[in-house]
Amino acid sequence: MAEIHVIYPVCVLLAVCVHSALAGVVHLEPPEEQESPGTLESDMKLTKEQREAIEADISAQASGVDARKAHADLALRWTDGIVPYVISAESQGDSDKIKEALAYWESNTCIRFPEYDANKGHTNRINFIKDVGCWSWVGQTGRLPQDISIGNGCAYRGTIAHELGHAIGFWHEQSREDRDNYVTIHWDNIQSGKSHNFNKYGPETINSYSVPYDIGSLMHYGAWV
Ligand SMILES: [Zn+2]
């Protein structure tokens, strides 16, 4: 049975431990910026509820209502920050890179990626597949398993780590007006001239779907070259 947890309980955990991942260097990984079929902003697949929430967000903004209430539970979280994973047969050739990306998140946050093992009580898990493009669902959606695609041209540590960020529950959220609820931006670690990448925009901008994907996104921060 899928366990769905809304954002608040683990949000605290993320706020405490994810900020350390922001201290790396800007690293552009273009594959996830290329449009994958059926995605929002190139690489995010959304549930019906998430799409409806985004539409509600737009309506709320238009009518002057506090839009934060409309998307407060948009991203569902994993229990205790534990994200079991499976590497499907078709993705075995990318397993080294996948494991490097998993290790990156583990070394920079308190998120943990154990190999899926039903005997250890795991139910939900992410399943690495080789679909068209690089994409992920956002947060823990209750799909069993929940696919994450590392398609042709996507098997870079930075790209995989980026998609893992979505699977964990991150949007392209450095520009979301509510991002300070999730992360701490370490302004003193941002390269000179890059701070504009951490501007916040209201949902009416985010949801225009036309904001160019920004190389300054925290989702592109990596410790490697
Ligand atoms: Zn993305």
In brief, what are we looking at here?
This protein has 225 residues and is α/β, with parallel strands linked by helices. Helices cover 25% and strands 10% of the residues.
Low-confidence stretches: 1-29, 68-72, 194-218, 220-225
- The total of helices stands at 5
* Helix-strand makeup class: alpha/beta
In sequence order, what are the helices and strands, one letter per element? HEEHEHEEEHHE
Keywords summarizing the entry:
225 residues, 7 strands, five-stranded mixed sheet, binds zinc ion, disordered N terminus, two-stranded antiparallel sheet, alpha/beta
Could you walk me through the main structural features you see in this protein, from its secondary elements to its overall organization?
- The chain has about 220 residues and is an alpha/beta fold.
- It is about 25% helix and about 10% strand.
- The chain is built from 5 helices and 7 strands, in the order H-E-E-H-E-H-E-E-E-H-H-E.
- Helix 3 crosses helix 4.
- The site of zinc ion has 7 residues, from helix 4.
